[in-house]
Amino acid sequence: MGEPVSQTPPSESGGGFKRGMWSSRTGFILAAAGSAIGLGNIWKFPYIAGVNGGGAFVLIYLVAIVLVGYPIMLAELVIGRNTQASPVVAFGKLAGPESKWKMLGWLGVLTGFIILSYYSVVAGWALNYVLMSVCDFLSNKSPEQISSLFDKLYVAGDINLFWHTLFMLLTIGIVFGGVKKGIERWARILMPMLFLIMLILVARVVFLPGFVRGVSFVFAPNFDKLTAAGVLEAVGHAFFTLSLGMGAMLTYGSYLSKKTDLVKASAVVCSLDLIIALMSCLIIFPIVFSFGFEPDQGPGLVFKTIPVVLSQIAGGELLAILFFLLLAFAALTSSISLLEVVTSHFIDSFGWSRKKATLIPGLLILLFGIPSALAGGGGLFSSWESIVGKNFFDTVDYLATNWMLPLGGILIAIFIGWFAPLERIKDEFQTGSKFKHIFIVWLWAIRVIVPIVMVVVLLYKVRILDL
Ligand code: PHE
């Protein structure tokens, strides 16, 4: 069993530096939703929904969020708020300072480090497209010319490196400001803007001829096209999109006050994430169908089709600027949560100042991301192939999202369900909540449903389960 509930005020952890706190429940919700809503919602979700036939996939994804995503988010918030610490220290507090469970915290820090290194490269593409849209680079070009711009960008190592560096510096700059003055302040500015931009774009596509077809593609379940692999992909994506499995929500939960209702807050964050993912589809698919594109294009969907289309409709240049700004904002509020996991780890575990704990890991991530930024361009890193036969970028992406996040998630569920001090967890879950009675439902979801679903997903990935 772990040590008794710590009475130490949070201000005493972190090498004598006052541990930050969200200024209000809304501040937390915006920051947590900012972490969840990111490239996963706007770039990835539409293209995997497109590949998997639309409606039925969306439905399965919804079920995955309710059955797996929501319980794990609650678990992370419970651990974070109870221990008031970042992952490694948090597991140490709950399981004992010598416990092997602390490695789960390390896994989270490492995962955050790796994801941010290439996430920043994709965010850099969005920044590049903002600039291209502002410079009117997309007008007067044929669809082929516009589509090929992405292929050119992908191989332009120097340009990717430039944007990757800029985006990392922005992320470092915000996290540097701390919880309230950095993360929360920027989430308060960027999240409402993101929502507004989405509304403008939805309002515009309503008038496109393919709107009705787009809507029915997203909402009418068509089970013919859905494969077992698609179902598993939906479960895996629920993880990534909700920022689960690596301690991001745990860390954000550690800055929460006891007054917040965790049951409700998690529900709000999951719902906001879902709404944005659906709105992204509502923007992209009407465009796809209005212009006769195929919905199952894969990762290029957003970068290759959106600019083509926007260059052809009235007000398109402005919409293109807005769309890519949206993508960059969404990425920024997620990247700061990735860095915060690493930063808070160095503050809590080694007593570093926030300044040092932001700068050193931030710059190391910047460096580690260089091979990803150069993965498409000629030279050293593009010819590098890992054992899984992928370039550096694809390898780290594959490792982190397919293995490290699900593994982290299943271990968090097993730890909290079977090994953490039950009374303490129950107490934390119910503190400040009006929904105390659902504790038992949540507990069994975490103990049984989540591990079973995740083991099936992992077995399928190692190809032991051939679906
Ligand atoms: N949830 C983010 C997205 O959808 C990505 C992310 C994953 C952020 C894990 C933090 C932790 O883009």
What is the level 1 CATH name?
Answer: Mainly Alpha
Write down how many β-strands occur, each being a DSSP E stretch of 2 or more residues: 0
* Number of helical segments with 4 or more residues: 20
CATH superfamily: Hydantoin permease
Biggest β-sheet description: none
CATH-derived topology: Hydantoin permease
| Tally of discrete structural domains | 1
Radius of gyration (Å): 22 Å
Shape designation? globular
Helix content: over 70%
The rounded distance between the terminal residues' Cα atoms is: 40 Å
- How is the quaternary structure best described? single chain
* Helix-strand makeup class: mainly alpha
Mean pLDDT across all residues, rounded? 88
N to C succession of SSEs:
HHHHHHHHHHHHHHHHHHHH
Stretches with pLDDT under 50, minimum 5 residues: 1-17
Bound molecules: phenylalanine
CATH architecture: Orthogonal Bundle
